[in-house]
Design brief:
single chain; 577 residues; Rossmann fold; Elongation Factor Tu (Ef-tu), domain 3; Alpha-Beta Plaits; 5 domains; eight-stranded antiparallel sheet; six-stranded antiparallel sheet
Length: 577
C-alpha cells in the first residue's frame, strides 16, 4: 500500500523502485514484517491544487505497538487497512483504539479485493460493526494492482484535517524518532506543532536541557532533502552533531533557546517492558563496545530499556527489557548484523513483585534478585487480558492451550458465524516462551493475538536452579509456577545433555528447587583406553593403569570447568520444539 502511494504521488522513480521500498532493513525484507515505522513526505495535485502529505508506515505486530503509538502522536489521521482474505485481526483492533484515543480521522480501506478467497461483504460488515461507518465509506482497493489508490488519496485530502499550527508562535516540535549516523552524530526526526525552524538556529531539547545549533535541517523524502526553513505542520529531521545518546529522547520537545515555548508537548507515555533477559558479550573485553552498541540501538528503538548487571557465570553484561519475544529476537539479530556483536542471551523472564515478611515490596526482574524463601511472605505475578480472534473450528484447541497455561476464559463473542473473539486472562510468564507459536500452529496461522497488562495477582512461584557439577549456572535460573517445576527441570536437564560437549570427566546436570534436587542427567566422560598397550601379563597390571586414570579424572574434575555453548542457551528457549 505504501509502495503504491509513493508511485501514485511520483515520490519514487522507476529507477529507485523495489518491493517494500520503505522497509529498508534486511530483517524486514527477510521476514516480510515492518519493524520500524518509516516517515516520508509526498506531493500530490488534486483538482488543480497542490498538497503536501506526510506518511508514516507503521508495524502491525503487538511487539512493536510502541512504534505505532509514537506515529499516532504525530499524526492527524490514519488509514485502517484491512485484509479482505483474513478479516479484522486482534492487533488491528488494538492499534485502532490507540488512534481513536488520539482523535485521529479514520479512513477504512479494504485491501486485496482481487484475491480469489476475498470475503468482501463479510469483512465490510465487520468494519461497519467495529467503527460504525457506512458501507459506502469503505474504500475497496488492491495494492498489488494499484486499484483504489487514487480514491484513497482523494479521501485523505478531503477528510483528514490539515495540521493546525501557528507559524508566528515560538518553536514547538515533537521528537518522534532518531538514529545514529557514524559520521554526523544523532539524527532526530520531529514534527513541528507551532512556529518555524531555520538552518543555524540555536535550539534546545526541553527534557534533557541540552542546547545545540541546527547544522542541517530538512524534510524526509526517499532520501533526506535539506531545507533552509521548516514550518508548523511539517515533518523533518535535524542534525546538530549530537554524540551523546541520552541528549535526544523520543517524546521530547524541541524549541529555540532565545524564544522558548511556554510548555512542552504532552508526548506519548513511556513504554513498559514485558519481558526481561540478560545480554552478555561472549568476550568479556567487549563490554564497553556492547554498551555503545545497545545505546545506539536504543536511539533507533525507544522501546528497548537496559541497565548494567553482572553474573557469576557470564561476567558483566546488561539486563534488557523488551516488549515481547519477537522484539527480543530482533534486537539480538540487529546487534549481530549492524554492530557485529557476539552475545549470549539468558533465559527470558517477566517482572514479579515479592513481598517480604517485613512488609517490603521488592521488584524482581532476575531470578537471582529473589529474596531467600524464609524471608518471602508472598509473590505476585503480572496478568494480561488477551484478545484472540480465530475461526470457530479452532476454538476448542485454543481454549485447551489457554487452560494449560493457567488461563481463565472471561468472554467469547461471535463476530460472524465462522469467527469468534475470545477474551482470556493469563499470567504473562506463561506466554513468554512458546504461547504464540503454539497458537499459530493450532489455528493453522489464522488466529490473531493481542494483549495488555491487567494487573498483578498472588501466585505460588519458586526459583528453579540449574547446577553443573554442583555449581549453579545463574544465567539458566528461572522463576516459574510450582506445578510446572518438575516437568521444566526434567526438560532443562535433557536439553542441556544434548548440547553440552563431553569432557574428560563426568558432568552432572541437575535441576534444583532450593536444596532439593528434582532432576539429574549425566554427560558421560570421554574415555581413553589406557589398557590398550597391555598385552598379556597379570590382571593387576591393567588394574594399576585404570586406578591411575581414575585419580587423574578425579583431579581433573576438581579443577576443570564446563563450557556451556550458546546453542544450549538458545535450546532452552525452544524447549518444546
Amino acid at each position: 500500500m505504501a509502495d503504491r502511494l509513493l508511485e501514485m504521488t511520483k515520490t519514487i522513480s522507476a529507477r529507485d523502485y523495489q518491493a517494500q521500498v520503505l522497509d529498508d532493513m534486511d530483517l524486514e525484507r527477510e521476514r516480510g514484517i515492518t519493524i520500524k515505522s518509516h516517515a516520508i513526505q509526498m506531493n500530490y495535485s488534486l483538482d488543480g491544487e497542490d498538497y503536501v502529505l506526510n506518511l508514516i508506515d507503521t508495524p502491525g505486530h503487538v511487539d512493536f505497538s510502541y512504534e505505532v503509538s509514537r506515529a499516532i502522536a504525530a499524526c492527524e489521521g490514519a488509514l485502517l487497512v484491512i485484509d479482505a482474505t483474513q478479516g479484522i485481526q486482534a492487533q488491528t483492533i488494538s492499534n485502532l483504539y490507540l488512534a481513536i484515543d488520539h482523535d485521529l480521522t479514520i479512513i477504512p480501506v479494504l485491501n486485496k479485493i482481487d484475491m480469489e478467497n476475498a470475503m468482501i461483504e463479510e469483512v465490510k460488515d465487520q468494519i461497519v460493526d467495529l467503527i460504525g461507518c457506512d458501507q459506502e465509506e469503505i474504500i475497496e482497493a488492491s495494492a498489488k494492482v494499484g486499484f483504489g489508490i487514487e480514491e484513497i488519496l482523494r479521501q485523505i485530502i478531503e477528510k483528514i484535517p490539515s495540521p493546525k499550527g501557528d507559524i508566528e508562535a515560538p518553536l514547538q516540535a515533537l521528537i518522534f524518532d532518531s538514529f545514529f549516523n557514524t559520521y554526523r552524530g544523532i539524527v532526530a526526526y520531529f514534527r513541528v506543532m507551532n512556529g518555524s525552524l531555520r538552518k543555524g538556529d540555536h535550539v534546545k531539547f526541553v527534557h534533557s536541557g541540552t542546547d545545540y545549533h541546527a547544522d542541517e535541517i530538512g524534510v524526509l523524502r526517499l532520501k533526506q532533502e535539506p531545507r533552509d526553513t521548516i514550518y508548523a505542520g511539517d515533518v523533518g529531521y535535524i542534525i546538530s552533531g549530537i554524540k551523546v545518546s541520552k541528549d535526544v529522547q523520543v517524546g521530547d520537545t524541541l524549541t529555540h533557546v532565545d524564544r522558548p515555548c511556554l510548555q512542552a508537548i504532552e508526548g506519548f507515555s513511556m513504554v513498559k517492558p514485558m519481558v526481561f533477559a540478560g545480554i552478555y558479550p561472549v568476550d568479556a573485553d567487549d563490554y564497553e563496545v556492547l554498551r555503545d552498541s545497545i545505546e545506539k540501538l536504543k536511539l533507533n528503538d525507544a522501546s528497548l530499556s537496559f541497565e548494567p548487571e553482572s553474573s557469576a557465570a557470564l561476567g558483566f553484561g546488561f539486563r534488557c527489557g523488551f516488549l515481547g519475544l519477537l522484539h527480543m529476537e530482533i534486537i539480538q539479530e540487529r546487534l549481530d548484523r549492524e554492530f557485529d556483536m557476539d552475545v549470549i542471551t539468558t533465559v527470558p523472564n517477566v517482572s514479579y513483585k515479592a513481598y517480604t515478611t517485613k512488609g517490603e515490596m521488592i521488584e524482581v526482574h532476575n531470578p537471582s534478585g529473589l529474596p531467600a524463601p524464609t524471608l518471602i511472605d508472598h509473590i505476585e505475578e503480572p496478568y494480561i487480558h488477551a484478545n484472540i480472534i480465530t475461526r470457530s473450528e479452532y476454538m476448542g484447541g485454543i481454549m485447551k492451550l489457554c487452560i494449560d497455561k493457567r488461563g481463565t476464559l472471561k468472554n467469547q463473542v461471535y463476530l460472524t458465524t465462522g469467527r469468534i473473539e475470545l477474551t482470556v486472562e493469563l499470567p504473562l510468564g506463561e506466554i513468554v516462551f512458546d504461547f504464540y507459536d503454539k497458537l499459530k500452529s493450532i489455528s493453522k496461522g489464522y488466529a490473531s493475538f493481542d494483549y495488555h497488562i491487567s494487573g498483578f495477582q498472588p501466585a505460588d512461584l519458586i526459583r528453579l536452579d540449574i547446577l553443573l557439577n554442583g555449581d549453579p549456572v545463574d544465567a539458566l535460573s528461572t522463576l516459574l509456577h510450582r506445578d510446572n517445576a518438575y516437568e521444566w527441570g526434567r526438560k532443562f536437564c535433557l536439553k542441556l545433555k544434548e548440547f553440552i560437549p563431553r569432557q574428560q570427566f563426568d558432568v552432572a546436570i541437575q535441576a534444583a528447587i532450593g536444596a532439593k534436587i528434582i532432576s539429574r542427567e549425566t554427560v558421560k566422560a570421554v574415555r581413553k583406553d589406557v589398557t590398550a598397550k597391555c598385552y598379556g601379563g597379570d590382571i593387576t597390571r591393567k588394574r594399576k593403569l585404570l586406578e591411575k586414570q581414575k585419580k587423574g579424572k578425579k583431579r581433573m574434575r576438581q579443577i576443570g570447568n564446563v563450557e556451556v555453548p550458546q546453542k544450549a542457551f538458545l535450546a532452552v528457549l525452544k524447549l518444546d520444539s
